[in-house]
Design goal:
alpha/beta, FAD/NAD(P)-binding domain, Arc Repressor Mutant, subunit A, 3 domains, 5-stranded parallel β-sheet, 14 helices, about 30% helix, globular, BFD-like_2Fe2S-bd_dom, oxidoreductase, NAD(P)/FAD-dependent oxidoreductase
Length: about 475
């Protein structure tokens, strides 16, 4: 394989990363694609392990033909030597020295062996993660995030119970509910906090993406065939059980997002899949010094960040779904290929992708307004509700830090209560802590993107094994 070609490190093998890899490789760039999973596809195209011998994995996915095209393209470029695909590589740090980058990863399931990849540029396609909003009983076995339920089904062909309530807000709830129903789970209720009237107010923006509307209608029709009841403008108030989940209490919401008195109802179930949207993964972008626009990595029309040599695409630049991630990834890959070759790209070459990006961003913005969590959700958190599971910090402790100790931001609450100091470093609880503290969710400013063994840090000066940079 020729090594004099410019070298791009793409972090993340979901839709954005795969599209960027293909676009860059097709235009003369040598690409190293790093991903934590054993197979490409990311969360959206998560595949069951080969040992499970799934006969029809496509039944668990939307837009399977797009996945086949991405997968086959990656295989073709890998065989040609244009792409090196590094699986089970958990990237924890990326740094820039002069005009070169070093991407540090931990190899394998144990995440103990360090690996370093040298590259001329970096493209961040790190995706997003679910926003978790606690409520009484949410730590019971049988309660999981909506995306977690979907990942379990796609990746292991397993479900957590026989009767499920799918609740929260957002477009993810429908495919999760229909996927579980198709797998034989009885859907006791789909509980959506959004107001159906809001769809009418945003009908023009939504109508601009008829394919997306048809996709949602298809999910709704399948759910109807399974005789699942839908409760709109409702929310989960509490989960009940002793050793595991036995039932949930749901209630209607008023116009201000408060629970309406006298509307509570108890629904028996052994699984609760609850989701309230997603947040972008920005840890690596922050360590590289990229500017954030709120919680999103800020990029220009070429998907470039403000750090020279760093591009970003997909959910890390704003939650918008797989189609938007594909468009952004294609643009980022084409731009990186041109810039690494020393020329300004001709943006007319990706005009179709740019047009799609514009429409899909507008659609995503409309959905954000539709699927915002209930305005008064934090009022459901009792003082004895655990908010930070890693450090077992309760809602009462956080409220005390704000009311009596003067904490006014997530970082101060963390210092006073340890909320966010555990293994997940606040990924699970930061949104809830911010809501209870009455402040905005700010960048984490973590030095590393994931926990790193001290032995690995001690060995950094001894030059860890280099991959994909020969």
């Amino acid at each position: 394989m020729a090594t004099d070609r410019p070298h791009l490190a793409v972090i993340g093998a979901g839709p954005a990363g795969l599209a960027a890899t293909a676009a860059a490789a097709a235009h003369g760039v040598r690409v190293t694609l790093l991903d934590a999973a054993a197979q490409p596809g990311g969360q959206f195209y998560r595949q069951p392990a080969a040992e499970l011998r799934a006969h029809r994995p496509q039944a668990l996915h939307h837009d399977w033909r797009t996945w086949e095209r991405l997968r086959d393209g990656l295989d073709t470029y890998a065989r040609a030597g244009a792409v090196t695909h590094l699986t089970n590589h958990h990237v924890w740090f990326a740094e820039r020295h002069a005009d070169r980058f070093t991407v540090h990863a931990l190899l394998g399931p144990e995440q103990e062996d360090p690996v370093a990849v040298q590259a001329d540029a970096v493209l961040l396609a790190t995706g997003g993660y679910e926003k978790v909003l606690p409520f009484p009983g949410w730590t019971l076995p049988g309660v999981l995030t909506a995306g977690g339920a979907q990942a379990m089904l796609k990746g292991t062909l397993a479900v957590s119970g026989r009767t499920a309530v799918v609740a929260g807000t957002g477009p993810l709830l429908l495919p999760v509910a229909t996927g579980l129903a198709a797998a034989g789970v009885q859907i006791a209720a789909l509980v959506e906090s959004a107001d159906p009237k809001a769809f009418v107010r945003r009908s023009r923006a939504l109508a601009a993406q008829p394919g997306k509307l048809a996709e949602g209608a298809g999910y709704a029709a399948r759910l109807l065939r399974h005789r699942a009841r839908t409760l709109t403008r409702h929310t989960v108030v509490e989960a009940h059980g002793t050793e595991r989940l036995e039932a949930v209490t749901v209630a209607a919401l008023d116009g201000e997002g408060r629970v309406r008195p006298g509307t509570a109802r108890r629904i028996s179930c052994d699984t609760l899949a609850v989701g309230h949207g997603m947040l972008p993964h920005t840890d690596l972008a922050e360590t590289l010094g990229c500017h954030l626009d709120g919680v999103n990595v800020q990029v220009d029309d070429e998907q470039r960040t403000d750090v020279p040599g760093v591009w970003a695409a997909g959910e890390t630049t704003g939650i918008g779904g797989s189609a938007l991630a594909l468009a952004e990834g294609h643009i980022a890959g084409r731009s990186a290929a041109a810039r690494l070759a020393g020329r300004a790209p001709d943006q007319r070459e990706w005009a179709a992708a740019a047009k799609s990006r514009t429409r899909l961003r507008e659609f995503a913005l409309a959905l954000d307004g539709l699927y915002a969590p209930p305005a008064r959700w934090s009022e459901l958190i009792t003082d004895d509700t655990v908010v930070c599971r890693c450090e077992e910090v309760t809602g009462g402790t956080i409220r005390e830090a704000v009311a009596e100790l003067g904490a006014g931001d997530v970082r101060t609450v963390k210092l006073l209560t340890r909320a966010g100091m555990g293994w997940c470093q606040g990924r699970m609880c930061a949104a809830a802590v911010a809501g209870l503290a009455g402040c905005r969710l700010a960048p984490s400013r973590r030095p590393f993107a994931r926990p790193v063994p001290l032995g690995v840090l001690a060995r950094e000066d001894t030059h860890p094994t280099e991959r994909g940079s020969s």
